[in-house]
Amino acid sequence: MKTSGKPHPNDRFAIPTIVALSIAVPIAVALLFLLPESWKLQWGSANVRSLPFFHAVLNGSTGVLLAVAYGMIKTKNVALHRLANIGAFALSAVFLVSYVISHLSNPDAHFGGEGWIRPLYFFILISHIILSIPVLPLAMLSIYRAWNNQIAAHKALVRWTFPIWMYVAITGVLVYLFMAPYYPMA
């Protein structure tokens, strides 16, 4: 078992790739919000209005898989821990692609709630957005370290990765629930 602090031979490729994706993806997603409505894509007869619900399902499923992964490592079931984490990462990747498609094709929706619920929604939304930025590099690096049997480095990373990723998954569902009445109908 490799637990030393020495770099892994694959680090020369993997770390720059993780860094590049960790910078490029948030910038690309942020640019979606600057896209004029007239540039939105049309998908023929495809109905992409239900994608926000799909995103909530993906986020909720990711949260469930993260909880399963946590439980599996506590019972020392490494194989199911690994499978649940890879599943959570795969669902997050599907979410990201679907989220981009949704924002490239759907009109922007705005929260219309008033009173005490408005600051609560914006607190959840803003914390969700801010914490979603480090999830990608933390998750990729955590998985990479585990994959290369750098268990000490993996454990050190997941102390941060797990709670942040879980928070983002749960608040992703909450954001959908807050916004559901304000999404345009098909």
Care to describe what's here?
The protein has one domain (14-32, 49-182): Up-down Bundle (Four Helix Bundle (Hemerythrin (Met), subunit A)). It contains 5 helices and no strands. It has helices at 11-32, 51-74, 78-105, 117-147, 151-179. The mean pLDDT is 90.
Give a short summary of the structure.
With about 190 residues, the protein is mainly α.
| Main β-sheet description | none
Gyration radius, rounded? 18 Å
Could you name the CATH class?
Answer: Mainly Alpha
- What is the typical, i.e. mean, pLDDT? 90
What is this structure's SSE topology?
Blueprint: H1 11-32, H2 51-74, H3 78-105, H4 117-147, H5 151-179
Helix pairs in contact: 1-4, 2-3, 2-5, 4-5
Q: What labels describe this entry?
A:
single chain, 186 residues, mainly alpha, Four Helix Bundle (Hemerythrin (Met), subunit A), globular
